[in-house]
Amino acid sequence: MNLDDIRKQIDSADSRLLELFSERMELCRQVAEYKKEKGMPVFQSGREKEVLNKIASKAPAELEAASRLLFSQIMEISKCLQREQLTEYKETVLSEFKKDPSVACPGIKGSYSEEACIKAFGDNARIDYYDSFKQVFDAVSGGRADYGVVPIENSTAGSVESTYKLLEQHEMYICGRLSIPVNHILAVRDKSKAIEKVISHEQALRQCSGFLDKRGYKQRAAENTSIAAKTVSESGESIACICSAHCAKLYGLEIAAENIADIGENFTRFVIISKELQAEKDADIISVCLSLPHISGSLYKLLTRFYFSGLNLTRIESRHMPPHIKKKSGSDSFEVIFYLDFEGSISNPSVNKLLQNLKADCGYYRLLGNYKEIL
Amino acid sequence: MNLDDIRKQIDSADSRLLELFSERMELCRQVAEYKKEKGMPVFQSGREKEVLNKIASKAPAELEAASRLLFSQIMEISKCLQREQLTEYKETVLSEFKKDPSVACPGIKGSYSEEACIKAFGDNARIDYYDSFKQVFDAVSGGRADYGVVPIENSTAGSVESTYKLLEQHEMYICGRLSIPVNHILAVRDKSKAIEKVISHEQALRQCSGFLDKRGYKQRAAENTSIAAKTVSESGESIACICSAHCAKLYGLEIAAENIADIGENFTRFVIISKELQAEKDADIISVCLSLPHISGSLYKLLTRFYFSGLNLTRIESRHMPPHIKKKSGSDSFEVIFYLDFEGSISNPSVNKLLQNLKADCGYYRLLGNYKEIL
Questions:
Q1: Pick from B27, B65, B69: which is nearest to A13 by CB?
Q2: How far is residue B145's CA from residue B106's CA, in Å, rounded to a whole number?
Q3: Domains of chain B, CATH where assigned
Q4: Measured between CA atoms, how close is A24 to chain B, in angstroms?
């Protein structure tokens, strides 16, 4: 038999498979309807196991695992269809960013966070500076600021743990996201003087360690890059700092060396946080965190649901579940939570229903936000 | 119709579905065989798209997405079967831990890392102390130590970024994993004296911030908890440190307060690193990192392969791809790498073949290790 002949036979098998699949989906719909009428729970895992065992016993030995996988998928797809059928669209309130808002920014003038605030809100925003990320969250949750801007991820250093912890503790929302290129420079008060010591944020020092080690500079950690710049501007000329060009200019420093980071491409991603959910009409990123009973099968089934709703996943991370969430989810067996970003809008009917169902089905579920990237 | 009647019809549809599925899988096998004989590439994405479009055009409108999903799964399962059929088992060399090895440990005596070294290797190992994680990696890759022990994750603080970076840069292997409970205590030289200031590693200070803030203690960061303990032992009595009970004892300090962390349950996970792959007979955790062209569909398909091979995923994390890996994978479109942990052994035929195929199919792929948890 040649390739064309075999393919014709495959096409014929597919046509019959499709017919049978349609028939089975219609029967499942009838089961769901029947159960709904009688007030029975629609999804029962006992029946699923029974079906899979029956299949496995009938399948040829070499296809047993494959058949189990196929039929568990058929049942997942059927559940996706029924969930959509049984769920009603829930009106979502879309809102816009406040004009001329007050914005809580961590650090001091000249920081990368300030750059992010200006990029996000322009010159009309009132920026207030706070010592810590926690104070930024407190300012927003206490109503003293409309928005907060905090770093969540650096392309070199990874996730900003403390921001995740604060998001978990404060139950606030992400209403925007943006990236700031991190171009580290070496700044001094007077270029003609020798450099004895370099100060900066620990991460900035680490990101430039190749440059620093080669020149044998002594290093000292500062709370952040702009505090380092301020320190240099107020002290003797033998100290240098690592900061941004913007920051050096702000503190009247001279640039001693440019592009000193070991890795050329370096950016920090910031999120804008708000007290209430604020989704704009053209918001196209959705972030959720949720718990699943076990990782393997349940993650796969979760992705089936996303895939079914045509959603494109852009990030996934499993993290240890914090104790206060463990308490809330009411079970010790939920030990992991997932952070997921995917493309979509909560006003899209299919997404809207999916989120409602995730909320109902997951031990722990929280919509972190529906927002867009500010370019 | 009652529930039993509908279910009988479903069972009948399933029997016929299973038959057709078997028929289709047999046809796919013939295609693969034909192509292999003729030296043609076995998997062609063009043909897949064609099949899916044909299905979508024939499916009832309300089942279009569901049918596409089903048939893309059928083709994935068929590929899994063929990959297993076409791949030959590759002999894996299993090896055991060296007796009385030399072990590179970051920090100084009394650190949590030292505790991990002792737990992993007992009292017969020769432990050498190094200033940084990087020096530990250098010692192992340079042959000055048989193994290194480094923290990779803390249940409160999350992933240890620098260890991930070093794993990415050094191409070394993980050959063991263990967890050490982190029980922070407050230690002083003399319990009868008032405490003015508390020093410790930044993370330890943060993990005990509730305790410290309540008492209004001044805080200062130290390089690590054991250096803090050493400092306290050598200085005036008004300084306290946060460290482990083991560490306090080692430096002759008194315990001023126990269990001072905000969150009771706290542990650090360490990995043992080696220069060569070292998998023991009963190793049951596999760690890989790999790249996928896009996240959504391709992650889903990847999980199909794990699911097909009966593998239980225990961890997943998408991370920004480091530039040197981006260069190696030869494409700018691979912007994310996944870190995956799953249960299994590289000597299991199905897993063995899966890993070979992942290596062949992924732009970037690296087996990080096959090891077990030391309890």
A1: B27
A2: 12
A3: 1-86 (1.20.59.10), 102-182+267-274 (3.40.190.10), 185-257 (3.40.190.10), 281-375 (3.30.70.260)
A4: 6
